[in-house]
Each structure stands twice: as C-alpha cells, then as structure tokens.
Design goal:
Rossmann fold, 14 strands, UDP-galactose 4-epimerase, domain 1, six-stranded parallel β-sheet, 12 helices, 2 domains, binds nicotinamide-adenine-dinucleotide, alpha/beta, three-stranded parallel β-sheet
C-alpha cells in the first residue's frame, strides 16, 4: 500500500529535498509537507503544504487525521551551532517534537516514524577514526545531548511499545538547493557560494579540521532506503552510523582550485571550532551496509563538480 506521508520541518535543508524525492516516488498527493514557515517556490508548488508547529501535539494529531497519515518524517530541530546559543529552546524543540510523534505511533495513529540523529551524538572521548556503531558516547553540545537522548527514547519506544521508528546519524550534509540551517559543517556549502561570488572564502574552521560529510543525494537515498527496508532488517533501533567521505577545509579548497585556479581561502576559527573538535573524523557504517544495503555514491571530487555546476546554473 502506498504510504501517506507527513514531513515536519519540510522547508529546511534536508526536508525540502526529501519532500521532492518522496513526491517523485509516491505521488504529490501522498506527501504532505509542513513547517512553521513557507519554503521555496518549487517546494510550495509541488504538492500539499500545512503550516504546523512541531511542538503542538494537538495540531500534529489533527493533521495526521485530516490527511490519513501513515508515516511521519520529523525533520524540525535546532541545529548544533544555533543550539549552543539557545540551549533551553533547542532542548524543548528537539525533545518535545520527538515525543509527540513517538506517542502518536505508540497510540497506533501512525505506522512508521523517521527521525534523524547526527554524528554530534559522539563526543571528545569517542574514538575519532572509524567511529564504531557502539562506542563511548559523551556528547558535549546541547544538540548532541538532545540527539543521544532522542536515540535512547527511539529504542525504548521500539522495545517497549513496538513503535516502528527508524533513524540514521547524518554526517555534515552538502547541498545546493536550500541554504543550511545553522550547523557546524555549513562551511562546506558556503565555500562554494563564495568561490563563485567572490573567488575567496574565510573559513570558520581550521584548515586541518577533518569531519565526516555526505552529498545530499546520498543522504536522501539513505533516508528513503531505510524507510523502505523490511522491518526485520532494521536491527538497530537507536540510530545507524552512516558515512560517505571525510575531508578538511584545505582538501576541499584544493578541489575547488582545480576548477577555479584563482580561488583563495583564509582561516578564522570561531566558536564552531570547539564543536567540530569534539566530533569524529571518520565513521564505520558497516551495520548499515549489512542490515539494509547502504552504500554512498559521491566522493569529494563529484561533490565539487555537482555543487559548482548546479550553483552556476542558478546565477
Ligand atoms: P534546517 O534547520 O535546515 O531545517 C529545519 C526546518 O525545521 C526549518 O525549515 C525550520 O523552519 C523548521 N522548524 C523549526 N522549528 C520548527 C517548529 N517548531 N515546527 C515546525 N518546523 C520547525 O535543518 P536540516 O539541516 O534540514 O536538518 C533536518 C534534521 O536533520 C534535523 O533533525 C537535524 O538535526 C538533522 N541533521 C542535519 C544535518 C545537516 O548537515 N543538515 C546533519 C545531521 C543531522
């Protein structure tokens, strides 16, 4: 049976591309986009949209009933860099919205939940290379604490109430359609915009700050694949490690220079350096390979090619 989908936080960096991908897959009328604000034109014109606050359980419940929703993708959250500025607001949004959708599934009002976690669940005491699925997890950011708590609650609702919740720990995501929403890896998008606009970029991380990253098309494929997988094959019900590539700002600048030889980069690390320093450099995602066949397609060179040509076509 075709799922009837509600995406909460559909106008953000991931939600806007996820909405379009799911509408291609299942038909526009089956995919209801929602957010506290309107999104870009392509998204707004591609199918049904509701203004919906992720912290308003009554309104979410009414929306689920109105549209006969079976699956919810909860993409609304406050991201790492912004959450450090507003810790209590970040905690309230990230946790309450998750409880609302988990409880709807517990009460059998919806069948399936997707909820994104992040590499921010790891902390300074976690092994930095090939970070395993199960390891020391002592996040030191508000965002990371909210994601780790969220993972534990997802597993709890699965084990105790049979809730079919599925989750992946996204690395930093690179995309061109929608601007990023205040994360620590946003430099890896800004750099392409500035390379094309000004030929130069001042990076807020040090040149040797290696972090796990992924192109948006890979992230969307992972998201739709885990949601389509047989329930028995989704064995991890906290959240899956997910990986594509790892690189630092200097390496990224080098791939841009290959295409824009006069491009220059300088470094002025700010508060986000402290966050990045607590995160892994590379991720072991073998469980996602084994359980539901995950494999990334894009490497750094492909990403640079895609980003520059797509952004250029917008000018
Ligand atoms: P984003 O900030 O770009 O988008 C979030 C969307 O949620 C925005 O459109 C915003 O308007 C909306 N929103 C905020 N408060 C809301 C509320 N109260 N009710 C309804 N909508 C609200 O974020 P994103 O990058 O698209 O991230 C989506 C999810 O993926 C988040 O859970 C985030 O933590 C996770 N994630 C993202 C990345 C990344 O690199 N982008 C990496 C790891 C995890």
């Amino acid at each position: 049976m075709t799922p009837r989908i509600l995406i909460i936080g559909a106008c953000g960096q991931i939600g806007s591309e996820l909405t379009l991908a799911l509408r291609d897959m299942y038909g526009s009328e089956h995919v209801i986009a929602s957010d506290i604000r309107e999104g870009h034109e392509e998204l707004m014109q591609s199918g049904p949209f509701e203004i919906l606050d992720a912290t308003d359980k009554e309104h979410i419940t009414a929306c689920v009933k109105k549209h006969g929703i079976t699956d919810i993708y909860l993409m609304a959250a406050m991201l790492s860099a912004t959450a450090e500025k507003y810790p209590d607001k970040a905690w309230a949004l990230n946790m309450n919205s998750l409880f609302h959708v988990l409880d709807l599934a517990k009460d059998k009002q919806v069948e399936k939940i997707f909820w994104p976690s992040s590499i921010a669940v790891f902390g300074p005491s976690t092994p930095k290379q090939d970070t395993p699925q199960q390891t020391v997890m002592e996040p030191s950011t508000v965002y990371g604490i909210s994601k780790l708590a969220g993972e534990r609650w997802c597993e709890y609702y699965f084990k105790n109430y049979g809730v079919d919740v599925r989750s992946i720990r996204y690395p930093g995501l690179i995309s061109w359609k929608t601007k990023p929403g205040g994360g620590t890896t946003d430099y890896a998008i800004d750099i392409y915009h500035k390379a094309l606009e000004k030929g130069t970029y001042e990076c807020f991380l040090k040149k040797d700050t290696t972090l796990p990253m992924m192109y948006m098309d890979d992230a969307i494929a992972a998201t739709t694949n885990i949601m389509k997988a047989d329930p028995e094959s989704v064995k991890v019900r906290s959240s899956y490690n997910l990986s594509a590539i790892s690189f630092n700002p200097e390496e990224m600048a080098a791939t841009i220079k290959k295409r824009i030889p006069d491009f220059t980069i300088s470094y002025a690390p700010d508060f986000r350096q402290k966050i990045a320093d607590t995160w892994p450099q590379s991720i072991d995602d073998s469980r996602a390979h084994e359980d539901w066949g995950w494999k990334a397609k894009y490497d750094l060179d492909n990403i640079t090619e895609e980003m520059l040509s797509n952004l250029q076509s917008l000018v």
